[in-house]
């Protein structure tokens, strides 16, 4: 068996693994990476972020074509199948793989394909893929960046051809007329937007009493309204009793006694860290009940020379954070000063409409007895939104009544996840630079959506002076 020696071995080539590996290589380490899938990119590229965002973009374009009267000059509204829009996503995925493969090559990082498991605390066995035999990688430091997979409860038959999870839905070869989505977290709500945008009648089953309850209440209400407006039936506080696949569809029985039938069923309820079959217990690491590993603020596990980053450590389970966590882990390994603990993470939710937020919510500020005020701007009142026709949405700024310091930014509507970063940059300023006055004392391009910050800041200041 071939044996290789590295300074750092990284397991997984998602955002966390890639950034850990490339950063370590840039800092002069010899790095080897292991990936069990046939190409690099991680679930982020193949099952999660990239395909779902590309699907959503294609669906938004279809909605635009079908609803904008200008396009009636060139044709009637058209129906597009799910496999057709999936093709768009596959093109993006292929570009991502090519680009990411080059990152490893350019930085002289060796990539090994096969399932990785530990044989001791410094040795990883790569169980041969692509007809190769097993290979052994020895390293001083190891980063576990193996990501997560959909949690699949044993009483649901995921081998049935009409029962899917968020990975297998990307193999859907037809377009159902009706779809049940079980689980109304971020992934469930995003897929509810995608399928309802394609004209599928969606039943969205929420196990909680409010959609995405971690969001500002106004924004979560707006999401419910717009999903319903697009034909989605949302059922709150429900739990499944059984999910039964038939020849023609799926029957979901809820504990409340309801029975719902649909052509297909998509399970979006929970994810599990990818830690099985890695021999972790043998080296002193015990994942929790969700398959996740605990780390300290330096991303070290209980075995200090073994680090973990990305979805495998749990919160926030976002590609955005996974990149930074992986980079931080390898900066710590390299003794570099650019290490940072990733704790301030914006929320970006690619539903239709898009949602993004950072900082505290009204509920949190009220509970903490912080005197705050609200400034809001509606997209429909900005010139840019009137031009693009993307008039659904709002920007809400929460700021301290006395210091005017920005405390929270909550936004929904077209490009909310981009718009939020303008405010984020101001929020992160030190001293008096992080107040909403910035938006009034700064000239913004016109017409832009950035203008919404000025409008919201003015609205907020008026509210204070009127009180
Ligand atoms: C439908 C969906 C939509 C999402 N949308 C967004 C979004 O819009 N924005 C956002 O920020 N996040 C989003 N996410 C979350 C994001 O995809 C994850 O947070 C991100 O992929 C985590 O990155 P990671 O590097 O930890 O792991 P992953 O991307 O999961 O990659 C882990 C890699 O490790 C490999 N691996 C696992 N075990 C082994 C082993 N034993 N040996 C070798 N290789 C192994 C896997 O094959 C995989 O390639 C979404 C997720 C889903 C499911």
UniProtKB/TrEMBL annotation:
Domain FAD/NAD(P)-binding: 6-326
Catalytic activity: NAD(+) + NADPH = NADH + NADP(+)
The keyword Zinc-finger appears for this protein: no
EC number of this enzyme: 1.6.1.1
GO function terms (MF aspect): NAD(P)+ transhydrogenase (Si-specific) activity
UniProt-annotated location(s): Cytoplasm
Highest taxon of source: Bacteria
Keywords: Cytoplasm, FAD, Flavoprotein, NAD, NADP, Oxidoreductase
Cofactor note: Binds 1 FAD per subunit.
Sequence ranges assigned to domain Pyridine nucleotide-disulphide oxidoreductase dimerisation in this UniProt record: 345-456
Named cofactor requirement(s): FAD
InterPro entries in UniProt: Class-I_Pyr_Nuc-Dis_Oxidored, FAD/NAD-bd_sf, FAD/NAD-binding_dom, FAD/NAD-linked_Rdtase_dimer_sf, Pyr_nuc-diS_OxRdtase, Pyr_nucl-diS_OxRdtase_dimer, STH_gammaproteobact
Entry-linked NCBIfam families: PRK05249.1
Family classification: Belongs to the class-I pyridine nucleotide-disulfide oxidoreductase family.
Function: Conversion of NADPH, generated by peripheral catabolic pathways, to NADH, which can enter the respiratory chain for energy generation.
PANTHER family for the chain: DISULFIDE OXIDOREDUCTASE, SOLUBLE PYRIDINE NUCLEOTIDE TRANSHYDROGENASE
Protein name: Soluble pyridine nucleotide transhydrogenase
């Amino acid at each position: 068996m071939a044996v290789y020696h590295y300074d750092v071995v990284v397991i997984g080539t998602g955002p966390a693994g890639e950034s850990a590996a490339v950063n370590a290589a840039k800092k002069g380490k010899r790095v080897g990476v292991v990936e069990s899938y046939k190409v690099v990119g991680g679930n982020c590229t193949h099952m999660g972020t990239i395909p779902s965002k590309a699907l959503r973009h294609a669906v938004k374009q279809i909605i635009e074509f079908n609803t904008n009267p200008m396009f009636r000059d060139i044709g009637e509204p058209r129906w597009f199948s799910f496999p057709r829009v999936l093709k768009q996503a596959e093109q993006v995925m292929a570009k991502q793989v090519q680009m990411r493969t080059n990152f490893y090559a350019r930085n002289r990082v060796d990539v090994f394909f096969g399932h990785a498991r530990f044989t001791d605390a410094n040795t990883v066995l790569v169980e041969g893929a692509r007809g190769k035999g097993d290979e052994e990688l020895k390293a001083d430091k190891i980063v576990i960046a193996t990501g997560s997979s959909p949690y699949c409860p044993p009483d649901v038959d995921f081998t049935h051809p009409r029962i899917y999870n968020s990975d297998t839905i990307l193999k859907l070869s037809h377009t159902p007329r009706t779809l049940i989505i079980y689980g109304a977290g971020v992934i469930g709500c995003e897929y509810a937007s995608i399928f309802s945008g394609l004209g599928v009648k969606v039943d969205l089953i929420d196990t909680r009493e409010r959609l995405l309850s971690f969001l500002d209440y106004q924004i979560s209400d707006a999401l419910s309204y717009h999903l319903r407006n697009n034909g989605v039936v949302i059922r709150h506080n429900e739990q499944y009793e059984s999910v039964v696949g038939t020849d023609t569809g799926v029957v979901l029985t809820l504990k409340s006694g309801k029975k719902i039938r649909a052509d297909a069923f998509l399970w979006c309820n929970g994810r599990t860290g990818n830690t099985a079959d890695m021999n972790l217990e043998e080296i002193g690491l015990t994942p929790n009940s969700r398959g996740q590993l605990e780390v300290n603020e330096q991303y070290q596990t209980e075995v200090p020379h073994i680090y973990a980053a990305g979805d495998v450590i749990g919160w926030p389970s976002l590609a955005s954070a996974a990149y930074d966590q992986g980079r931080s882990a390898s900066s710590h390994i390299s003794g570099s000063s650019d290490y940072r603990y990733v704790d301030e993470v914006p929320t970006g939710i690619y539903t239709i409409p898009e949602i993004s937020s950072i900082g505290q919510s009204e509920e949190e500020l009220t509970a903490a007895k912080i005197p705050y005020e609200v400034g809001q701007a509606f997209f429909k009142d900005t010139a840019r939104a009137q031009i693009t026709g993307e008039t659904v949405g709002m920007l809400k700024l929460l700021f301290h009544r006395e210091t005017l310091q920005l405390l929270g930014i909550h936004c929904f509507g077209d490009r909310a996840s981009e718009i939020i970063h303008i405010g984020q940059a101001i929020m992160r300023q030190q001293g008096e630079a992080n107040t909403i006055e910035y938006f009034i004392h700064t000239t913004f391009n016109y017409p832009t959506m950035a203008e919404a910050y000025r409008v919201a800041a003015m609205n907020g200041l008026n509210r204070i002076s009127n009180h």
